[in-house]
């Protein structure tokens, strides 16, 4: 894919959260805002996402869709808060939530646990939950997404995402150990947002920078950026050539 800017709406990515599950370094949990004049999509919605959105001046009521990589709380746990905020704010705009198989049931369980009875409350807006199948291209709001299965245990399938936004392609690894699926995920992407949880320490179902660096020649993307940074990785960011995301950063896609 050419590195030249494509025609059509200018898409950008606002980094709401770039941290791990534990707020290491004061970073919020996983959440990206993909936006243009064509619409606005969240990619992951960790438990800290709603205050992060409001701190960044993003109106939650303007979000068209949320696409979730996997069903751990630091990637989807903000959804009950986002939906309830819409109810209290009088949202009327439809909201689509897309994620792996099990998303519908897990969202209902989480909502009932956090706010008993709120799931059955009347809403002025339609909440549509779409469960994505691997390698099946699906339209979600203003974008199209093709999930790729990755290696992360979360009680449901875990995906990396290839997201087509106009003529641009954003790839997001979600959480995963190294898998050759990342080669497929990165192929032709304008930006690959990839987990680098640790620097060299091997942690099950997560990716360390040393392993990622050993495979960089296989990742055919225009730009690689790193996210989901844990304590060891944060201590070594000055030794990393690739760009490391931080909360509040904006990337042009």
- Uncertain spans: 1-6
CATH class label: Alpha Beta
Using the 3D structure, state the CATH architecture: 4-Layer Sandwich
Q: Quick one: overall form? A: globular
Distance between the termini: 13 Å
Q: What's the alpha carbon Rg, rounded to whole Å?
A: 17 Å
CATH homologous superfamily classification:
Ribonuclease Z/Hydroxyacylglutathione hydrolase-like
Structural class: alpha/beta
User: What's the helical proportion of residues?
Assistant: 10-25%
- Treating each run of at least 4 consecutive H or I residues as one helix, how many helices? 7
Please tell me the total number of domains: 1
Largest sheet, strands/sense/barrel: 7 strands, mixed
Summarize model confidence as the mean pLDDT: 96
Order of helices and strands: EEEHEHHEHEEEEEHEHEHEE
Strand order, largest beta sheet = 6-5-4-3-2-1-14
The CATH topology name reads: Metallo-beta-lactamase, Chain A
Task: Record the SSE blueprint.
Layout: E1 12-17, E2 31-36, E3 39-43, H1 49-55, E4 65-67, H2 73-76, H3 79-89, E5 95-99, H4 103-114, E6 127-131, E7 138-140, E8 143-149, E9 159-165, E10 168-172, H5 181-186, E11 191-195, H6 209-214, E12 224-227, H7 231-234, E13 243-244, E14 250-252
Parallel strand pairs: 3-4, 4-5, 5-6, 10-11, 11-12, 12-13
Antiparallel strand pairs: 1-2, 1-14, 2-3, 7-8, 8-9, 9-10
